[in-house]
Write a structure and sequence with these properties.
The chain is α+β, with helices and mostly antiparallel strands. About 20% of the residues lie in helices and about 30% in strands. It is rod-shaped.
């Protein structure tokens, strides 16, 4: 082997060693990235803004993946955890769904029934009624010409609110008013069978159904004489 051939062999060996060194460097970088990022896991984020106290469903969220080491310990990775839950605060679109954003929906007590009715946004306690609130339910009935006077009645006292839905456009029931669609909120109550019948009757036949918010801790029962009001009582 002459000197030129020896130089060629040396250069070839050096090239092989450099290639092996570069390959080892690439593997080192990959290992470093993997150690920092780690495996990816499934999580969920909010599709659209969700108002407080809204019942949640799988359709409200979209599936995403992200590195496990970057996932908060409170992140929800199984949508079954949202069953029977409501939002605690406003959930913003794009937010990562976490367990501290949701709570259990209030449950029914023995002997209670669940009923939801639409409450006109103008005649409810706007923005102040939330799940767990206690309210009085009033209904106003029109009088009859030459007969019964118009009156307001306390239909149910101290009704427990289970859920408050989203503001929804509805058709005005009073065609004589000449107004277009109005807005109402579906509110779900936990009531006894008798109170459920009273509310159903009021929703069907009363001109308006109104709610009044009862102060927390107020255990005062209304006087039976004050359950019905007519204007002549103030004379």
């Amino acid at each position: 082997m002459n000197s030129r051939q020896r130089r060629g062999v040396i250069l070839l060996l050096l090239s092989v060693l450099c290639a092996l060194g570069a390959f080892a460097g690439v593997l080192s970088v990959i290992d470093d990235v993997n150690s920092k990022v780690g495996p990816e896991v499934t999580a969920y984020r909010v599709k659209d803004d969700i108002q407080p106290f809204t019942p949640l469903g799988a359709a409200d969220f979209e599936k995403i993946t992200m590195p496990e080491r970057w996932l908060p310990g409170t992140a929800v990775t199984d949508l079954r955890r949202t069953e029977g839950k409501i939002a605690v605060t406003t959930l913003k679109a794009g937010s990562l769904l976490q367990s501290d954003m949701i709570v259990d929906r209030p449950a029914l007590a023995p002997g209670q029934q669940e009923i939801a009715i639409m409450i006109d946004a103008e005649t409810g306690v706007a923005g102040k009624i939330t799940p767990g609130s206690t309210v009085n339910i009033y209904a106003t009935f029109a009088g009859e010409r030459g007969g019964t006077a118009a009156q307001s009645r306390l239909i149910v006292s101290r009704a427990k609110v289970l859920a408050v839905g989203k503001l929804t456009p509805i058709e005005n029931r009073d065609d004589r008013a000449g107004r277009g669609p109005t807005e109402a909120v579906p509110i779900t109550f936990a009531l006894t069978a008798a109170d459920t019948q009273r509310v159903t009757y009021a929703e069907s036949f009363a001109e308006h159904v109104r709610l009044t918010l009862v102060a927390p801790g107020d255990g005062t029962a209304p006087d039976p004489r004050d359950r019905t009001y007519t204007l002549d009582k103030d004379k």
